[in-house]
Amino acid sequence: MPKPHTFPTLYDECKTISIGFLKKHGYLQLDHWKSGTITWSVNGNKTGSISIAAYINAADPYLELDYTSNNKPIKYRVPLVNMPSNIGKGIVWYFLCPSTGKQCRKLYLADTYFLHRSAFRGCMYEKQTYSRQNRIRFHAFGKLFRTDDVYDQLHSKHFKKYYKGKPTKQYLKLMKLLNEAEGIDERSLCLVR
User: Which residues pair with 103 in a beta bridge?
Assistant: First the structure.
């Protein structure tokens, strides 16, 4: 009898809350209180939303999450901690996972609560589900697969190719990827099995 299929929850498909998002939208200012809503959508269809409130004081900063999961209202606090930056400029913020107590910069919703990824069992990243042969193929063809993403970045609305007359580092990196993809020999692709 064959082994039954297991379809793991993929971290790539989970709803997330990141420190980067909170910082970008002004939630992490000292001695400040701010609330708002995060909405997730796929192809323009709303897949979920959550109300958040950040209370950033010197003594006990935290993020309050309020949402509905499986028709049950859920409301809890996620502590925030900060530490000085390793380059000596400013501070770096982290979530303190309510379940594991680990510091992290991204929380995942794989079950009912937003937690650190190590709090979930049986979850994987998409690349971990690839077979050995697929991993070999992706390694060989990866540069070709990424060219669409590279062209999208190059032609995005606010992408800067030059700054003060010099090409930007990001532009040079993307051009290097394109040149590597164009330099792939067709005969070498046929050798991959």
Answer: 96
- Whole-angstrom distance, CA of residue 133 vs CA of residue 24: 40
* Three-state DSSP state, 111: coil
> CA-CA-CA-CA torsion for 123, 125, 128, 133, nearest 10 degrees?
140
* Residue bearing tokens 């971990």: 128
* Amino acid in the structure at residue 1: M
The DSSP symbol for 80 reads E
Series of mean pLDDT values for 10-residue runs along the chain (193 residues): 68 86 89 88 84 89 90 91 87 92 90 87 81 80 75 86 91 86 61 49
